[in-house]
């Protein structure tokens, strides 16, 4: 059986590595070693962006102290063919988020590279039984979601929403809270928000713009909460009330979804 060992990838997360990768951890390679490519974007044969899990080289570890602590980490590289924002902005926003909401900190940046701690887990989107922009089928699917699954997902959503509110109170809006950017970690069990590339500081927009940014941040969670209530019945928590109030603006036929939830509550008192 192949020997495996645990390695820290953030202040509170670990992963198990095979022995050949551990050799690269202990004896740094000359260049960053790509362990896994998460995403690669191209246009007309030209590379635009690469999101990868890497083992840091000796040079990377000397340039970034956190890379020495977490040599296995996430690296996002932007290429010249793509217009992109400044990775320093993403770094600064990620650092602020880590301070506000106890998220794993970023590792470092250059003019075209952003590095952060690796978050082991699954995007919430993969765990959800619902599909984006599929109101009718999601409503039908809700009746088949087991109680244990629906209840567990509801608790994860509540944790995610509380995290967003903490960031907003601290003056940071995420800007891209699609459900794939909420990573569900099994140990310790928690939700971690990633990808602050399009985040916005409160002082950068006017009051109306800030309000709109916060509403957009919450919208994906509130949509998911409505479908989960179609499985569980109406919830009277803060998340339940917020999603109920927003249903008519978030959905093509929010009134119909409300009726379905109310009917479920009547059938299952």
Model description:
The chain has ten helices and twelve strands. It has 269 residues and is of the alpha+beta class. The protein folds into two domains: 4-117, no CATH class; 122-267, Transferase(Phosphotransferase) domain 1 (Transferase(Phosphotransferase), domain 1, Orthogonal Bundle). The strands form four sheets. Strands 3-4-5-7-6 form a five-stranded antiparallel beta sheet. Strand 6 and strand 7 (113-117) form a beta hairpin. Helix 8 packs parallel to helix 10. It is globular. The model has no long low-confidence stretch (mean pLDDT 92).
Short characterization:
The chain is an alpha+beta fold.
Structural class: alpha+beta
Q: Return the CATH architecture of the largest domain.
A: Orthogonal Bundle
Q: Can you tell me the CATH superfamily of the largest domain?
A: Transferase(Phosphotransferase) domain 1
The percent range for helix content is 40-55%
Strand content: 15-25%
> Spatial order of the strands in the main sheet?
3-4-5-7-6
Major sheet details: 5 strands, antiparallel
Assigned CATH class of the largest domain:
Mainly Alpha
Output the CATH topology of the largest domain: Transferase(Phosphotransferase), domain 1
**Count of β-strands:** 12
What's the SSE pattern? EEHEEHHEHEEEHHHEEEEHHH
Radius of gyration: 21 Å
Any low-confidence stretches, pLDDT <50, length ≥5?
none
Distance between the termini: 53 Å
Helix and strand layout, with pairings?
Blueprint: E1 4-8, E2 14-18, H1 19-26, E3 33-43, E4 46-55, H2 58-63, H3 65-69, E5 72-78, H4 87-101, E6 106-109, E7 113-117, E8 122-123, H5 124-127, H6 135-142, H7 147-169, E9 172-173, E10 182-186, E11 189-193, E12 200-201, H8 207-232, H9 238-250, H10 254-267
Antiparallel strand pairs: 1-2, 3-4, 4-5, 5-7, 6-7, 8-10, 9-12, 10-11
Helix pairs in contact: 7-8, 8-9, 8-10, 9-10
